[in-house]
Amino acid sequence: MQENSRWHVFDNADQIAVAACQQILKVAERAIDDHGMFKLVLAGGKTPEKVYQMLAQADADWAKWLIYYGDERCLPADHPDRNSVMANQALLSKVSIPAEQIHTMPTEIGTELAAAFYQPLVSAALPFDLVLLGMGEDGHTASLFPDHQHNKDELVHAVYSSPKPPLERITLSAAALSTSHEVIFLIAGGNKQEVIKHWQQGADLPVARIQPENPMDIYILREYFQAVTTPDLSSNYYGQQGYALDSTNQHRDNMPD
Ligand code: 6PG
Predict the structure, then answer these.
(1) Which atom of ligand 1 is nearest to the CA of 192?
(2) Is the pTM of this model over 0.70?
(3) Which CATH class, in words, describes the domain spanning 6-250?
(4) Which among 24, 94, 124, 201 is least surrounded, fewest beta carbons within 10 Å?
């Protein structure tokens, strides 16, 4: 766990989505002002889906957005369990990002081929401006799972034995996901208290291998966070506003700019 991670604590997934959506739009504006484009990596999962639905209502300079994926399941292109199908329904079909700037992982051609296809795209894109990630109950993120070994030179890994169906996937490496100006974790849903505790205690989990140069922002349900912090901190929670703490539990007055 990065020493300076920022924890943003909320009552429910809708509040997480509102706050994350605001931060994404700010990061996008800053990136476009700075270098004329915004390179965003999308996550799969239920929590990110809410964020995409909200983003779709926003007014942004969509023509400057470039979309990448953190991982994808090896399924037919139109399969409802694909992350690209979810992102398309929730966001991409509703905004005017040029089709050639949406870099879907072509996992319908097979794990190995899709990973080889995506590798040069990632290499050319790095550093990303923003990487969005979820986290599973076992501490996986993207399709980086506990106990899976990957070649450290690869930016994109083929995955053959995912514990979460389907078995075959491709995923960006921890190094590629960490090569980003900003990283936001969106953590709600399921039963994630225990794994959060282990992450904070320094366990060797896939999430712990995401180590960008700048502090990460972790948007999380209050019930998960309380499990690992001192009880008196919960009385300082500011409801709708979210309550930001750094990883040493110091109160931070402001949400990130
Ligand atoms: C996937 C995701 C995966 C997801 C987490 C959290 O393709 O399955 O990329 O890493 O983000 O499992 O998902 P939830 O937010 O739905 O719990």
Answers:
(1) 17
(2) yes
(3) alpha beta
(4) 124
